[in-house]
Design brief:
The protein is of the alpha/beta class. The chain is built from 6 helices and 15 strands.
């Protein structure tokens, strides 16, 4: 007998708790599109999306439940997709476990062990589009970019490096070119209290082909993957394969980069967005 009395209150509560972004906030998508990339990605970095259309869904419903098309409102079933991908083959967050089995002398955390608070923070874009395609940004490069926007880093901020390399998405060269960040510059960012840093290129390091050639030529063990290997000594995360950083101001936005909770994962694909406070 109370249902009639409660219904208006429930309707008011439902209305009260509905959510839409404030009019003064804009959401910028910083993620690449998850799609079939066989035509341009190397075999070791491909993503596959297998599409099952509504007709296939009707057949699946009949197979599993014995429900015929005549019992379906549209005569069709559900659509579905099957994904085959690496945790690193789209926009993703690297965990310390990706860099090495240990970090700071302890077992390196996997992506499912990291606190989500780390991935929701004020963002800063550093424009390094002037660097050569095979160059690694130095500490001086980062400091000059900060001076240009008159900004001082604060602990916990998320620093995004703009190289412009997302313009090569769909081109095989995307995987083999584009500036990165040096090991010493990565350490400097960590020293400023930065735990999460990202880039709009394929990887945080400068192109691996260039690093591989130099490592073999010099015999050095400190060249290949030098920035990633900073994670052996220091706890930090990278966001790789970002896009659309050109749509952001240098500061004044919040980054949301929540990775998928992959058990024991070295990384987690993420739908990275920026909340722009207009």
């Amino acid at each position: 007998m109370y249902s009639g009395c409660l219904r208006p209150a429930l309707q008011r509560a439902s209305f009260r708790f509905s959510f839409s972004p404030p009019a003064q906030m804009k959401i910028i998508d910083l993620s690449t599109t998850l799609e079939n990339d066989r035509s341009w990605a190397p075999w070791w970095a491909r993503t596959r999306v297998k599409y099952q259309d509504h007709a296939f869904g009707a057949w699946a419903i009949w197979l599993v439940f014995g429900v015929a098309r005549k019992h379906l409102r549209t005569g069709l079933g559900w659509a579905n997709e099957i994904l085959t991908l690496s945790t690193h083959s789209t926009t993703h967050v690297d965990a310390p476990w990706h860099y090495a089995p240990t970090c700071e002398g302890k077992k390196a955390p996997t992506i499912d062990e990291l606190p989500l608070e780390r991935f929701y923070a004020p963002g800063v874009v550093l424009d390094l589009r002037h660097l050569r395609p095979d160059q690694a940004a130095s500490t001086a490069d980062l400091q000059a970019a900060l001076a240009k926007i008159d900004h001082t880093l604060s602990p916990g901020q998320i620093v995004l490096i703009q190289t412009g390399n997302d313009s090569l998405l769909g081109n095989p060269e995307y995987f083999h070119t584009g500036p990165g960040v040096s090991g010493e510059a990565t350490r400097w960012l960590i020293d400023q209290g930065i735990k999460v840093m990202g880039i709009d290129a394929w990887g945080w390091d400068r192109p691996l082909r260039s690093q591989a050639a130099e490592a073999k030529r010099t015999g050095s063990a400190t060249v290949f993957w030098e920035a990633h290997f900073v994670g052996v000594d220091r706890d930090y995360c990278q966001i790789e394969r970002l896009a659309h950083l050109d749509q952001l101001p240098p500061t004044g936005f919040t980054v949301c980069a929540f990775p998928l909770k992959v058990k024991n994962g070295s990384a987690g694909p993420a739908r990275v967005v920026a909340l722009l406070h207009e």
